[in-house]
């Protein structure tokens, strides 16, 4: 609790200032107050938490699962083969030069308002940090340790399992703590541009009605999802990486 006290104090101060400024401006469609946002969340609680939140969570779950599978798989392949590294590393970099907002409408044209247009946006955003960080983590294992294990008769699989993968775990968790908030942004972008349900879709619908509190309500839920996910990842990281100091 003591570790989180500074964040709680600063967050509380910012919320109070936000409430004061919003009441001074008194234009809720431009800057809704935190209390107005909470009231709006309560007003639309059934739609937000039983329809739109599950839709967004499904996109996030599928998108992150695919990003993990593809990102870790490609990182292992690049670590195992210099040819694969030379072939795919530049493509990874190039994939980040294309604006997501330009591709998202194309995905909607390809897949319509189905879940896959949003999943592809999520994968495109989260795949890069997972692949690059995991690859760098695998490369971070000390060469002399690898040679020592091989000298004692260890197989390449044993070197990977006992040395390279544990060395990559800190980088992998770092990439996940970056990828999870990015995946939420990706899902929201996809839902803004074309969806029939989801928190991003709800926010866009409220925007057309000039309902500022309604626009912010799903954003608050998305932010809470990101914070809770990162906290869970930090707990898992401490459980799995016991050799690193806090």
TrEMBL record:
It is found in: Cell membrane. Coiled coil: none annotated. One of its GO terms (cellular component) is plasma membrane. Signal peptide: none annotated. It holds the Pfam family BPD_transp_1. The chain crosses the membrane at residues 47-76, 88-113, 119-138, 172-195, 215-236. SUPFAM superfamilies: MetI-like (SSF161098). It is a multi-pass membrane protein. Keywords: Cell membrane, Membrane, Transmembrane, Transmembrane helix, Transport. One of its GO terms (biological process) is transmembrane transport. Residues 53-237 form the ABC transmembrane type-1 domain. InterPro entries: MetI-like, MetI-like_sf. Belongs to the binding-protein-dependent transport system permease family. This is Aliphatic sulfonates transport permease protein ssuC. It comes from Kurthia zopfii.
